[in-house]
Amino acid sequence: MVTSRDVARAAGVSQATVSRVLTSANPVSAELRERVLAAVDLVGYVPHAAARTMKTGRTGAIGAVVDDLASNPFYPELLQELSDAFDDLGQRLTVWTAGSRSDAAIRSLRQGLVDGVVFTTVTPTSTEFASAVDSRLPLVLINRTLDDVDCDQISTDNVAGGALVADRFAAAGRRPAFIGGPADASTSRQRLTGFRARLTELGAALPPAPWEIGDYTHDSAYRAMQRIIAEDAADAVFCANDVVAVGALDAAREVGARVPDDLWIIGYDDIALASWTSIDLSTVRQDARRMARDGARMLLERIRSPSSPVQHVRLEPELVTRGTSGR
């Protein structure tokens, strides 16, 4: 039977170093990690998960709670980045979809089935989540965040992202509107806050309506855009994510509105399809890769050092101008 001693000999390191790499107990250099993992492949070593758990008190498994895997491409893209990040760190990833599954993830953490949990779509409604935060369990919030919650969080600076769109609309003298997502989603709320605040700062007109609040779906955005066009309420629409923007774009094209000549549309996220020629969507880019990798690092640091200071990280957004808002 191949053992970790065989890996150590093949890599030219100590058995303790092999253990550190395979359990992520302590950070090692990238070069040393690659050498050990190459030796693992070379000798065909397969760590015994149960034995490792008994020895270290850790499972090597991380939970992730995601949402909208079927309807919003941003979440599969973020999940892929999370999977790659934890895989590079020697961790297995277990995935739950949001809703009632959020509480299932917390229960798995309490039962020792996973070492920590990443939340990508948290809202302040789960009593299990609040209890887990109070218990100082290893959690990290990625993408959506919660104000006044004492746990590690990383997101794009959504207020700044909204301000970027306001700058673009105001510079062109456009009449703005906003189509949002759920009122309790930090992403939609913060993007609207930044958008309105910058328009006010620039002295741009704020339309009395419609500041539409929907459910982050194509259909709700489609209906909202129909109302905006019917009332001639705006000629530049900021959408809280790219799925919403595509719904708005479809509604505009349905009635023959010329985009961008008659109407501008800007989304948020910069999912892969936003750059497709047939869509060519202007949007605010989130760095999903960095968000995932920094979030993974933060969670493993929390697992290793439960009492370390909480981190709140905001990444800079970037406005990507394509055909739906003029180049």
From TrEMBL:
Record keywords, A-Z: DNA-binding, Transcription, Transcription regulation
Pfam family, one: Peripla_BP_3
GO molecular-function term, one example from the UniProt record: DNA-binding transcription factor activity
Keyword DNA-binding: yes
Database matches in SUPFAM superfamilies: lambda repressor-like DNA-binding domains (SSF47413), Periplasmic binding protein-like I (SSF53822)
Positions of the HTH lacI-type domain: 2-56
Tree of life domain: Bacteria
Listed transmembrane segments: none
Cross-referenced InterPro entries: HTH_LacI, LacI/GalR-like_sensor, Lambda_DNA-bd_dom_sf, Peripla_BP_I
Signal peptide: none
The name this protein goes by in its record: Transcriptional regulator, LacI family
Species of the source: Microlunatus soli
